[in-house]
Design goal:
Monomer. This protein is of the alpha/beta class and 351 residues long. The chain contains 13 helices and 13 strands. Helix 5 packs parallel to helix 6 and helix 10 crosses helix 12. It binds flavin mononucleotide (FMN). The site of flavin mononucleotide has 29 residues, from strand 4, strand 6, strand 11 and helix 11.
């Protein structure tokens, strides 16, 4: 019996955001006390076949933590202790924000999904930047940057630039997040003119590696237009996908009508299709995210063209062994298919 078999029913009795705070506090204690370094021995799967170099960064294994779990960069070392190969902190905004009124996070247990409308609650770029600067993490840390709610779309580029300036020396890669559904108008920034301005401004400021995170709700044409900007500006990578505002008919939970972004099992296939669509149209590395909760799902995204995968909702449903379980499973799948490394498997399902 695993610890999470006991803890999960207790946590699932709590409102989702409370459960998240409890888990976060526990990870915080682990990180402060140094227990996270003991966790490593239990959770990390160290095997050269899992490691790769992606946009010039050495990544020990392909399973990362998606943005939103550690919005304020409080527990990246503890998450590395759970065996994740990279951690994306944030979304961070220039201004400190309290986010939307609660409740704003909903557990769709029957669907193994979440709906969130957090609205970029975070401590702000100054605080998060300072915290990151004094935190040592032994896996790469990406910083997911969002737009402050009060900043008009026309001034978005400066807003992103401010945040970048606060985190530039402590992030290993930087993500322009223009795809969260919970900041009014944000997703409009995925259109070509806005993207060019924001990404061009960060690029000129020296942001590297620089990635953009896309929504699963973009039309094919809009995705292609965004990818044209990625090519023109010689960006380093694409993350796909964020949460969706769509509600598949299959959803059973009473919470399905809540406003916000849906994540977890119901978006898995769609996200994998998005990975394939993007990987077919760009040469830069793709990070695949959306519904990953086991080795088969991670492997499907890798074969569809993802150099790395990330997860959030899967961690809630599967618990702290998820990175270890996926990494062990990936090694078996690599062996089954005769690959010597993850890098060999990336994109093998593409035409
Ligand atoms: N994505 C971002 O780019 N920035 C965020 O700040 C962010 N916050 C999130 C908060 C919550 C509560 C959840 C559930 C997701 C958030 N996401 C955010 C989206 C995740 O990073 C991820 O793209 C999405 O949940 C799909 O992955 P999953 O199915 O593994 O959860």
């Amino acid at each position: 019996m695993q610890l999470y078999d006991v803890a999960k029913p207790v946590l699932f009795q709590l409102p989702p955001e409370t459960a998240h705070s409890v888990v976060h506090s526990m990870l915080g204690v682990a990180q402060k006390s140094g227990i996270d370094r003991t966790l490593v021995q239990r959770y990390r799967v160290t095997d050269p076949r899992l490691s790769s170099t992606v946009f010039d960064i050495d990544v020990p294994n392909p399973v990362g933590v998606a943005a939103g779990f550690d919005k304020n960069a409080e527990v990246p070392s503890a998450l590395s202790g759970l065996g994740f190969g990279h951690v994306e902190v944030g979304g961070v905004t220039a201004e400190r924000q309290s986010g939307n009124p609660t409740p704003r996070l909903f557990r769709l247990a029957e669907d193994r999904a979440l709906i969130n409308r957090m609205g970029f609650n975070n401590h702000g770029a100054d605080a998060v930047g300072a915290r990151l600067a004094r935190t040592r993490v032994d896996v790469p840390v990406g910083v997911n940057i969002g737009k402050s709610k009060s900043t008009p779309l026309s001034e978005a580029a400066e807003d992103y630039l401010y945040t970048y300036g606060r985190v530039e020396s402590s992030g290993d890669y930087f993500v322009v997040n223009v795809s969260s559904p919970n900041t009014p108008g944000l997703r409009e920034l995925q259109n070509r003119d806005h993207l060019e301005e924001i990404l061009g401004t960060l690029k000129d400021a020296g942001a590297s590696p620089l990635l953009v995170k896309l929504s699963p709700d973009l039309t094919d044409k809009a995705t292609e237009a965004a990818l044209a900007v990625v090519d023109d500006l010689e960006l380093d990578g694409v993350i796909t996908t964020n949460t969706t505002t769509d509600r598949p008919d299959s959803l059973e939970s009473i919470h399905r009508a809540e406003t916000g972004g849906l994540s977890g099992d119901p978006i898995e296939e769609r996200a994998t299709r998005a990975v394939r669509f993007v990987a077919e149209r760009t040469d830069v590395p793709v990070i695949g995210v959306g519904g990953v909760s086991d080795a088969a799902g991670a492997y499907a995204k890798i074969r569809a063209g993802a150099s790395l995968v990330q997860l959030y909702t899967g961690l809630i449903y599967e618990g702290p062994t998820i990175a270890r379980d996926i990494n062990r499973g990936l090694l078996e799948l690599l062996e089954r298919d005769g690959f010597d490394s993850i890098e060999e498997a990336v994109g093998v399902d593409l035409e």
